[in-house]
Automatic annotation (TrEMBL):
InterPro entries (alphabetical): Cyt_c/b562
SUPFAM superfamilies reported in the protein's UniProt record: Cytochromes
Keywords: Membrane, Transmembrane, Transmembrane helix
Protein name per UniProt: Cytochrome c
GO molecular function: electron transfer activity; heme binding; iron ion binding
Organism: Epilithonimonas vandammei
TM ranges: 6-25
A biological process from GO: electron transport chain
Length: 154
């Protein structure tokens, strides 16, 4: 009897955890389609400021990586790639992830990962052409995001 109760409680706990993970990490808040075809993501002012600052940081990193490619200097690329990589994910303000639609999160994580990939490539086996291709992938993410979303405050 006690094993049955523990099994039922375990199943309930797993179901609740799956539901919470879905709610907070995947679902995000609904977005409202704008007249210009983009979807609006509404968030707290502080979170919007964080996202905008991160995007400006991405743009600065892209410029520096491009400079590293032009100068054929993998050290620049490695340094900048690490600064904008997945290590930045730890600095995300509380509540921000919940407010983002799943597709936006996917693009954001993929962008951070591409910075990591370029940093690793620059450190281990630098290939100018391949780095340029990864940078182009990253820029495609940026363009897709800006074409798809508009971030406003609540």
């Amino acid at each position: 009897m006690q094993k049955k109760i523990i099994s039922v409680l375990l199943l309930i706990s797993i179901a609740l955890n799956v539901g919470l993970i879905y709610q907070f990490f995947y679902k995000g808040e609904k977005v409202i389609a704008e007249k210009d075809g983009r979807s609006e993501i509404r968030m707290a002012k502080e979170n919007r400021e964080f996202v905008m600052a991160e995007m400006r940081g991405f743009l600065e990193s892209v410029q520096k990586i491009n400079e590293g490619i032009a100068k054929n200097d993998p050290e620049i690329i490695a340094k900048v790639g690490q600064q904008s990589g997945t290590c930045k994910v730890d600095a995300v303000p509380q509540g921000l992830v919940k407010s983002l639609p799943f597709e936006f999160k996917q693009m954001g994580f993929q962008t951070h990962e591409l910075f990591d990939v370029m940093a690793k490539m620059a450190k281990k086996k630098y290939d100018r052409q391949l780095t340029q291709e990864k940078l182009n992938q990253l820029l495609n993410n940026c363009v897709a995001c800006h074409k798809t979303y508009k971030i406003t405050t609540k």
